Amino acid sequence: MNTLMTSTESRVLAEVADQISDDLARRLRCSEIAPLLEEAISYCLLSGGKRLRPALVLLSAEATGVDRSIALGPACALEMIHTFSLVHDDLPAMDDDAMRRGRPTLHVQAGEATAILAGDAMLSMAFEWATDVAVEPGAIVRIVRELATATTDMISGQVYDTIGGLPTELTDEQRLQIIQRTKTGALLRAACRMGAICGEADPQTEEHLVAYGEALGEMFQIVDDLLDVTQTAEHVGKATGKDLEAGKLTSPGVVGIDKSREEVERLRQRAHAALAALGAEADPLRSLCDEMAVRTR
Amino acid sequence: MNTLMTSTESRVLAEVADQISDDLARRLRCSEIAPLLEEAISYCLLSGGKRLRPALVLLSAEATGVDRSIALGPACALEMIHTFSLVHDDLPAMDDDAMRRGRPTLHVQAGEATAILAGDAMLSMAFEWATDVAVEPGAIVRIVRELATATTDMISGQVYDTIGGLPTELTDEQRLQIIQRTKTGALLRAACRMGAICGEADPQTEEHLVAYGEALGEMFQIVDDLLDVTQTAEHVGKATGKDLEAGKLTSPGVVGIDKSREEVERLRQRAHAALAALGAEADPLRSLCDEMAVRTR
Hints:
2 copies of one chain form a homodimer. By secondary structure, chain A is an all-alpha fold. In chain A, 73% of the residues lie in helices and 1% in strands. Chain A has helices at 2-9, 11-30, 35-45, 52-63, 72-89, 106-110, 112-130, 137-162, 172-198, 203-230, 233-236, 242-245, 251-255, 257-274, 283-294; strands at residues 99-100, 103-104.
């Protein structure tokens, strides 16, 4: 169901999603883990999803002029990190979500202990997969560090968002920005940097791609927040209206719906500007950001 | 309290424990994470503990003839992995333990959401720390892979031990061996291999150290199982008699107390034999294994 959704919403993601899903399935089959873990991880990892993060890794590598396939290991690693975070965020002690991508969440399906352990295993397996890339070892070490710091940043963001702990003197807008940059932004930025490293990009090109990832990440979160207040759960495929209910900071909640929409357009342009020095190899990234600005789920 | 315990029980661990604890504290202070996470991780990470795994990394590096300090990054990484696994294993949905090292477990102290997220953060931070070592990048990549596969193996072992899923045709003894080799054995073996890589050991020396780690790991678990049936909780510092209560497979449960004690001695000798080709630099490892064979907590 979700794959169909994706293909109608983003031509660019539809084009790479199958390659990513096939590679995720192959890596999972080859892994030597407890069969119960493999089953649990397969349930979450191969149930659709946009594949936005791994796609960004592949397309950022491609934008540097190499074949996108070189970046499949790090791309799959990043999708594992994203999936682990969804599984743990859904747990009863966290967001307590019963549905994800139109199906019962893992802890509902297989029990809480399995969900905790499967999330942990996805996190550590990601670091095996991240090193599976044919670039020189120094570049692999950089990929590992980027993946690790981005994951830690994402977890910090989750803490700020669900537990708190940000300095009280910050305005809501400042808090929202910190949460966005860590919770969602860190992995999207890392995706672009990891792709650039896989393509052995020069430092300037790498920074252009990271700037693109930052703008896209901020835009993505605002669109997500807008969908949470404007769309039905059935359409989006997960519970909506939850942010408001949980008293979470969101862009429409802090600056209003109209200003959030303006911000989306401003960030879309900033993402394009970041790619100005890159050639036609970066066209899929350009199209992707246009598509993400107008997505409805 | 625990540090005192350690120093009376193992001279070798007492000698390196402070260096490890200081470095753990320093790395944690330097990390840019949510303050609530830092506090939670500090609560678990700096509350004593034997420091057996990081000590094995340092002493294995030393056994190859280099200064042990070179291996501090990977050593601290491994202690983070061990500590994350304790935090998640203690969760209500897992072993549901209220006490650890004589203090309330993290989820009792700070809440379940914090315990889940702090565990996750320790896991990802470990991979940052693991790359902080002054050897050539190819060796760092090997360290990362070893840490990742060992962590995944440990999680598989935890699944076998608490949820199950091992083939039904295996005997209890075979199941116990698989659980031991994954749940406890994987990290202890990895400790020795990571130390060997930090010391840029030749392949043969590396295999000797790994063989030592395997024997020590198996011995360590049997001693742990023996303590669970023969010692009081107050003396050991955590709940005892729990394995029996939970119906878990243990060495004394499967082969009896006397045969378990014989096995400890056999493994102690095997650990010594593995080091036969190494010089006096490996003496701390030799003493450590003797001390671990007779520990009472």
